[in-house]
Amino acid sequence: MPEAKPSDTSSDYKAMCSYWDMVSTILGGADAMRAAGVKYLPKFPNESQPDYDFRRQNSKFTNIFRDIVENLAAKPFAKEVSLSDKVSERIKKLSENITGQGDHLHVFAANCFFRGIGYAIDWILVDYTKNVPENATQADEERIGARPYWVPVTAQNLIAAYSEMIGGVETFVHVRIKEDTTERAGYGEKTIERVRVLNREVTRDERGEAISAAPATWELLEKRKGQSGEEVWTSVGSGPITIGVIPIVPFLTGRRVGHSWQVIPPLKDAAFLQVEHYQQESGLKYIKELTCFPMLAANGVTPPVGEDGKPAPVPVGPKSVLYAPPNGDGQHGEWKFIEPSAESLRFLAEDVKQTEQQLRELGRQPLTAQTGNLTVVTTAFAAQKGNSAIQAWALNLKDALENAMKLTAMWLRETEEPEVAVHDDFDLDPNDEKGPDTLIKMRAAGDLSQRTLWSEMRRRNVLSPEFDPEAEERAIIDEIPSDPSEDEQSAALA
Predict the structure, then answer these.
(1) CA 268/CA 19 separation, integer angstroms
(2) Based on C-alpha coordinates, what's the Rg of the chain?
(3) How far is residue 62 CA from its own chain's centroid?
(4) Number of domains the chain contains
(5) 464 lies in which domain range?
(6) Which terminal residue of the chain, N or C, has fewer Cβ atoms less than 10 Å from its own Cβ?
């Protein structure tokens, strides 16, 4: 059995990586799909390599899957992700640049949500500036710019994650993150393979169950060449994680398989159907190219032979003359064009269209897809089903962001638990023009309070999100005419 290496992936990772590779290729667009070759566009039986290369390089790819993910991922971000008023000023300031690279909390959350929908899982690492002197005060840390910051960790870069139930709480005890880096080498570049290891030693009882975990540590390992040319993993940095825990937070849209970190992707069927749609579209395009150009056929004509002994190519097109000289018996050949029937094209085009419609429905996009013969009730039900799924994912995102904020507070030695607001109200139909009129009629009948009417109007974006009910009430009161004073009455009589 070969010796284990830090770059080895876990069994959970191995179970998921084929799906992640497929999603990455699809999201990469036409160039990535063509580069994948036979993996997603198989060769025809007995197809020569030049013919296949031509078909692959000219294959057609309409990226419906990415459109689905983009549309779903945009829904919670119609309103800005925000923190509650109770959070400290330090955390509010950090949220303006949560990554240390200029990303606002809203931007970070949107990118995390997009990856989570596509890959079914995404990760947030809450790290802290390295090389901070021991016993540094808050003032010292602010002076040197030490701060917690969030690092997005994609599903494909978190190569191993292990957790245990300790004290009734699921706790991460070992995590490995692939952190390859590219450095300039003169006028070129070189890639250095690195793996970050986050670890907590576990104490177990006589039955093998975890009862406690030591404070967390980190170590950065780098692949280098040994003295004899072999590859060795060398530590280039290590130390304790002062908050005591592994500061990693998962965000899931898929369902976990038992206690593992395998997940069932919610859009897995849509991804596979996208690959099938790619194959159908490419096949249709190729057949159209073969069908739409008539083929020249010769009967009773001896083809000219080249120097290699093979039939010479026949010139076709304007300014070309084809001869069919008679033989010794006075019989001559003939040239004619054969044009295949296009009936199969209509069938294939309809098949592609049906696959596209099926794909959009799988992607929870019934309102933007061509619904065909779907009834209004069926379409509305499908929309509600999609919304309920996105709402669940939005709540999962809110939970993940709040857990990351708790780790941020721990790095700042604060005890508060910040609350994050993520928009999850997707029930309103943007084409509902009767809703506001109905609310106004209910208000006129006394079935709604003025405050509720304003709240519903703001929810429907009829009123601005900055609308202030208290300020509006004061403005209304100011507009009410007051009784004239005695001086004003006397002046009026005079």
Answers:
(1) 8
(2) 33
(3) 17
(4) 1
(5) 433-482
(6) N
